[in-house]
Amino acid sequence: MAWHGIEGHDEIRDLFRRIVASGRLAHAYLFLGPEGIGKRRFALLLSQALQCEHRPAEELDPCEECSSCRQIKAGTHPDVTVATRPEDRIEFPIETVRSEIIRPLSMKPTQGRYRIVIADEANTFNEYSANALLKTLEEPPQRSLLILLSTSPELLLPTILSRCQQIWFKPLSPEVISRILVEQGAVSDVETARYFAELAEGSVSEALLLVSPQVQKLRAALVGAFGAPRLDAARLLEVAEQAIELAGSDTASRRQMVQVLCRLTVSLLRMALRLAVGNGGLPPIFGKAEQAAIESLARTVGPDRLIRMIDRTLLAGYHNDRKAHVPFLLEAWACALADLAFPPPLTSAARR
C-alpha cells in the first residue's frame, strides 16, 4: 500500500519508522535515485511526520490536517526550508548554500521539533558549495536535519558522500507507472501506457513528459529524420535544436529534453535492431510512419552500425548528465549518427 500516495517506497518508510522510534535519526541524509520517483515528496512527508502536532513522530504517519502539516505542504513552515538551485545558474552557488541551508539549520526550531532543510539537486553543488557545508555536516546543530536529493552518487563530491547517510530509492516498476498513466488519463490504453512506462525507466515524471504533446511532436520529427532515404546530420540537428528551444531557457529543463531525445532515439534504434536480427516484429503502438522508418533503418543500416549508433546516443546522454555544453554535444551526436549510418567513402590517401 502506498504511503500517503507515494508509490513503491514503503520499505524506506518502514526504515525511517524504526530509526525515529529508536531515537537514531541522523543529522544528514542523502536521498539517491532517478529523477521523478518521489524523493522530494518523500522528504516533505517525512518532514510532516516529524513536525506533526497531532501524531507522535515515531509513528511516521502525518495527519496532514494540523497547522504544521498544512504549512509544510504550502511551503510556509518556519522550521522547514526547501533549498533549490537558482534557475539562471548551472551549479548550486555558495551564496544559496549559506542563505538557504547553513543559516536555517543554525537556528533553533521556533514551532516544530526539528529544523529541517531539504536541498534539491545536490548533484549540482560545486567544490566551493560542498566545502561550505563541511562545518554544518561535521558539527550539526541540535535538533537539525538536512536532506539532500540527488540522482547519482557519481555526481557528488566526496565531501558530501562521506558525511551523509545514503538512502537509495528504487525506480518504480513499469506496472506501477503504467497504472498511474492510465489513472491520470495521460494515455487511453494499457498497452500504450506500458510502452512509455518502460521507456521512462522507473520515473513517473519522465513518463508523463514522454506522453506530452510536446514530446510526441519531437518523436514524430525524429521518425521523419530516421525515415529519410539517407540520415542527414543537419536535419537531425535541426530536430534536436527545436526540441531544446521548446524546453525554454531553464538549464535543467533543456538538459532533461536532451535526455528525452536520447531515450526516444535509442528506442527507435533498438526496434530497428530487433527487426534487423529477426527478433520479432514491432509492437502495435507504432503507427505506419514509425513502422516504415524503423523498417527502413533495419534494412539500410544493419545490425552492426545500429549497435554503434545506440552506443553513441547513450554516450551523448552520459555527457549531458555531466554538464557537457549542449550545442556542441548535439552537433557531435548528430554528425556521429549520420556517419555511422552511412560511413563516408574513404579517400585515396586513407586507402593507402
Strand content: 5-15%
Helix content: 55-70%
Number of helices: 17
Mind describing the biggest β-sheet? 5 strands, parallel
Would you list the SSEs in sequence order as H and E?
HEHHEHEHHEHEHHHHHHHHHH
**What value does the average pLDDT take?**
90
Global structural class: alpha/beta
The Cα radius of gyration reads 24 Å
Termini Cα gap? 68 Å
Strand order of the largest sheet: 2-3-4-1-5
What general outline do the C-alpha atoms trace?
A: elongated
DSSP E strands, number: 5
- Give start-end ranges of low-pLDDT stretches: none
What does this structure look like?
The chain is of the alpha/beta class and 352 residues long. Helix 11 crosses helix 13, helix 11 (213-226) runs parallel beside helix 14 and helix 15 (303-321) runs antiparallel to helix 16 (326-341). The protein contains 17 helices and five strands. The model has no long low-confidence stretch (mean pLDDT 90). Strand 2, helix 4 and strand 3 form a beta-alpha-beta unit. It has a five-stranded parallel sheet, sandwiched between helices.
